[in-house]
């Protein structure tokens, strides 16, 4: 059974870089038609897409975050990572990693497996 | 960017009633690119529906999705206590965006 687990600091100072890692178990990060992504959710608010990466390294970012985001993959470690630079209090959120299927069943595109999420607070 | 607007913001129902949740896109979205998720407090979202109308593995058949173009619907035929949660629609046609969510609460 596929499992994803986020890890990283729970507190980041303003203007610094937020770094998180997602470890994938029970499946192959190099499988065709699967991307690996990050989504965040500020406390009490909705979901915001950050970006996804294919095992080859191709990335697709949220245009509103693109200038600050880097997602990378280490297939040998079955991990992928998120870096978000120049953080502010507005970046405080629960960060989820998830598997993105595309195209999947019936040619559809969707997030089918999610990690439990990790809260990252931005504060001095 | 495709903006997804969900309505109502909050839906108050009693167990056994029918729930109809709406997701309207700012421009046409292929059915292949529309999904629905359920999120309970303190939990990650769970995939319910993909391709606008296909149920994900293990999802009860009281959940159904429909629609096309700019108007999509998630229907729960008879709400049971574990269905009270927040529901999000999501599209991937133009980058990826989520609706703001509909909270289904007990009346």
Q: What's the short version?
A:
By secondary structure, chain A is mainly beta.
Notes on the protein architecture:
The complex is a heterodimer of chains A (124) and B (107). Chain A has 124 residues and is an all-beta fold. Chain A contains no helices and 11 strands. In chain A, a hairpin with a 5-residue loop joins β5 and β6. The radius of gyration of chain A is 14 Å and the shape is globular. The relative contact order of chain A is 0.31. Chain B is 0% helix and 55% strand. In chain B, strands 2, 4, 5, 6, 8, 9 and 10 form a 7-stranded mixed β-sheet that branches. The radius of gyration of chain B is 13 Å and the shape is globular. Chains A and B meet through β5, β9 and β10 of A and β5 and β9 of B.
Keywords:
heterodimer; A: 124 residues; mainly beta; seven-stranded mixed β-sheet; four-stranded antiparallel β-sheet; B: 107 residues; three-stranded antiparallel β-sheet
Poorly predicted segments of chain B: none
| Structure classification of chain A | mainly beta
Helix tally of chain B equals 0
Determine the strand fraction of chain A and express it as a percent band. Answer: over 45%
């Amino acid at each position: 059974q596929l499992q994803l687990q986020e890890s990283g600091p729970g507190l980041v100072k303003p203007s610094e870089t937020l770094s998180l890692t997602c470890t994938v178990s029970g499946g192959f990060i190099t499988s065709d038609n699967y991307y690996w992504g990050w989504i965040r959710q500020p406390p009490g608010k909705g979901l915001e897409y950050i970006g996804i990466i294919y095992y080859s390294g191709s990335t697709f970012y949220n245009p509103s975050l693109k200038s600050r985001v880097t997602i990378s993959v280490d297939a040998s470690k079955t991990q992928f990572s998120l870096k978000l630079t120049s953080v502010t209090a507005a970046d405080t959120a629960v960060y989820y990693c998830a598997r993105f299927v595309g195209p999947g069943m019936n040619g559809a595109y969707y997030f089918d497996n999610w990690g439990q999420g990790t809260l990252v607070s931005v504060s001095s | 960017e495709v903006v997804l607007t969900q309505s109502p913001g909050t839906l108050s129902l009693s167990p056994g009633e029918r729930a109809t949740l709406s997701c309207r896109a700012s421009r046409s979205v292929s059915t292949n690119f529309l999904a629905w998720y359920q999120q309970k407090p303190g939990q990650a979202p769970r995939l319910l529906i993909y391709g606008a109308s296909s149920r994900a593995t293990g999802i009860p058949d009281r959940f159904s999705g429909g629609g096309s173009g700019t108007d999509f619907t998630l229907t729960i035929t008879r709400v049971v206590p574990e269905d009270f949660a927040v529901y999000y629609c999501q599209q991937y046609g133009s980058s990826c965006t989520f609706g703001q969510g509909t909270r289904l609460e007990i009346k």
